[in-house]
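Quarterly update, task 2.4: magnesium ion-bound model.
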Amino acid sequence: MWDRKILRKIRKQVKAILALEKTMQELTDEQLAAKTEEFRQRLTNGETLDDILVEAFAVAREASRRVIGLHPYPVQLIGGIVLHNGDVAEMRTGEGKTLTAVMPIYLNALSGKGVHIITVNEYLAQRDAELNKPIFDFLGISIGVNLRDYTPQFKREAYAKDVTYTTNAELGFDYLRDNMVRSFKDKVQRGLNFSIVDEADSVMIDEARTPLIISGGSKNRTPLYQASDAFSKSLVPEDYKIDWESKQIALTVTGVRKAQAYFNLKNLFDIENSELFHHIQNALRANYVFKLDVEYVVKDGEIVLVDQFTGRLMAGRVYSDGLHQAIQAKEKVNIQQETTTVATITYQNFFRLYNKLSGMTGTAKTEEEEFVKIYNMRVICIPTNKSIIREDMPDYVFATLNAKFKALINEVKERNDKGQPILIGTANVDVSERISNMLRLEGIRHEILNAKNHAREAEIISKAGEFHAVTLATNMAGRGTDIKLAPGVNEIGGLAVLGTERNEARRIDNQLRGRAGRQGDPGFSRFYVSIEDDLIMRFGGEKLKKIFASLGDDFIKSKMLTRSITRAQQKIEGLNFDARKNLLDYDNVIAQHREAMYAQRDKILTSESVLDILKTMHRTVARDLLKIFSKVQGREQYIDYQALVTGTQNKLLKQGTLEPEVLKKMLPEEVIDLISEKAFEFYLEKRARLNEVIINQIEYATLLQVFDRFWTEHIDGLSKLRAGIHLRGYAQLNPLQAYIEEASKLFSLMTINIAHQVLIMLHSIDPDQIQVRSEEKILDTVLASNPETKTKIG
Ligand code: ADP
Ligand code: MG
């Protein structure tokens, strides 16, 4: 699309960078390193990053040559510029993306606002930081690594550096945690300026399907899960219907009847049964749609999710809305108490917080629409340094899984006999185990990678290019590690990649093929496909089965089938995009609330005094009081000022400050003004009798505590709202619209409730009583007075 036009412009810049090569080489080390200070100066004097791009790239390029002996190729300069421009650079595996990033990192680090390099695991974060550190040390750019088990102090130091290497998960969790701190100085991050996401498709697309969640307190519903599970297991296939394409399951008429009998209900669909209905639904999905060792594995009594695209185990990730517990019930492991969400964000909305965002990966073009629509990033294909000579062969198609695996093992044997290294790509751990067993029977030595232990697997896969090496890997396993060919392997065809089935996305297939034939190496790739593969079964496999039955153990190379596989993949890619888009649509609603709350919270944390916030809250409450005390008599609506005055007396208002008779004669807006003014005065009077330092602390702590508590309840409420929204009868509205409307009501309600709660707590401070106690006691007393049920003044 736009690649050619953009590349033309970038090539001009690359030319200019290359033209500086000699000048840069003539500089002494000191002179070259001194460029950093010069650039910083020029930026202070008003030049922009774009103004100094060419020179800065030339400097970083030369520094790389001198310090680590790698001279970035022109295509790497192109990639670097794409990254600086905030787009996705699609560069094939082995093209040297780690080094490519050095130049835009250097340029953007000069601004001093921070550059984050995001990798998929901590092993890669550390590795890449180590690889590039000498260059940055030389240039006087500080670099840090942020890891999961670091103390806040360590994390803060890592984020304070010009450049920070870390993982997507850690970065997101740090962000959420930073918005839960009690004091501004406890934050570890210092803003989100520029980031480069490595393996961008994996992070920004695949992982973006599950939001980041920090959980808090819990509630125990174990019996309900067990009952729903037992009920589901009692069903026969006629009782439910599964739509494999969308992975939805529903009870049939007989199923509904059984449910009503089992749980002794009149009507399962009654709104009062909606929680049970939700549980049954989850139990059905757990038992009949989600498969052990495919969607999840059981490891040490825990359910661990498997990424459907990559086969990688997603430790710590859980299904939401009770599905996880339903699966735990199914597998008879300990049922985790359902936790409440304390903080949450989707990756999509997290990444959007950056001033500038860029990504690099070997495979992104097929997902360009998503990158553009969700992240506003274009995908630019960068030409390879040397042309690719890998042979990508057409798929072999078999009738059965058995025939497929048998033939696959034969090809492995043949190639292995010649000494050719082979990488077998599997879709999940299950298939890996199966192939491994078959290889063992044949006496073929091999290694298995499941993306469990990154450092060890990186070491194994780096040897996958040696003579006679046979390596079995799920898709993410060893990603990011170079497979270097042993001397002589070139002559026997390089690395051979064999795929055991086509994956759900074309991107993952391409990623697998791309493991071979790097930097102009010879290489080979072929996918083994059978009609019984999940992908084909999901899209009309039953019909094909008959047609292909006559094949026996033989295979065909069917263009027709290959085309329909591609179509099926496109369809799934589309469905998955929709699912992520849907997730995002809903998260966008919370995102607005989150931004408002986090901004308010930051304001509290950074203000010398929170009095102006309290003043506003007095107004909010005053306005609400008029609502609370408005009454309807006959057709007439009026405000019961007598009740208002009595109800707030001595709590919010000093006795005798307001006369109901006077209020009656005023306009409502005037009354609001008057009440909030008098109430605030009353508060100021009380607080003036307390030590300024102490009351400041109390106000601060009270605000934070109330904010956080209500916010947590709000997001919990929203997730319930979301789960049940389709059950509600909104005739004209689609569920998303209904959700948006309800959510915004809940949000205004929360704002009002927060104001009420804060004022209740602060106005209940009795200076006479409190003076005699020690300082911490006062704080404890106020915070402990926090009533669990929401009450309102009045
Ligand atoms: P990618 O992430 O694109 O798959 P890597 O960054 O892992 O690739 O680099 C692959 C290999 O290429 C590494 O061994 C690296 O040292 C090497 N490499 C990268 N750039 C250059 C270069 N300009 N000259 C020589 N070798 C390079
Ligand atoms: Mg890489």
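Highlight for this quarter: Residues 391-557 form a domain with the Rossmann fold fold (CATH 3.40.50.300).
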